[in-house]
Amino acid sequence: MIAADFSPAMLGTLDAGIEYYGLADRITPLELAWDDDWDLVGPVAKAVDVAFASRSVTTTNLKGALAKLDRTARRRCAVTMVANSSPRYDLHVMNAIGASVTCSNGFVYAFNILIQMGALPQVTYFESPRRDTFDSLEAGVADFSRMLEHGNEDKIDRLRDYIAQHMIENPHAGEPGSKGVPQGRYMLDHVRKVRWAFIAWEPVSAPSS
Question: Which residues contact 59 (CB under 8 A, 6 or more apart)?
Answer without folding.
Answer: 34, 35, 65
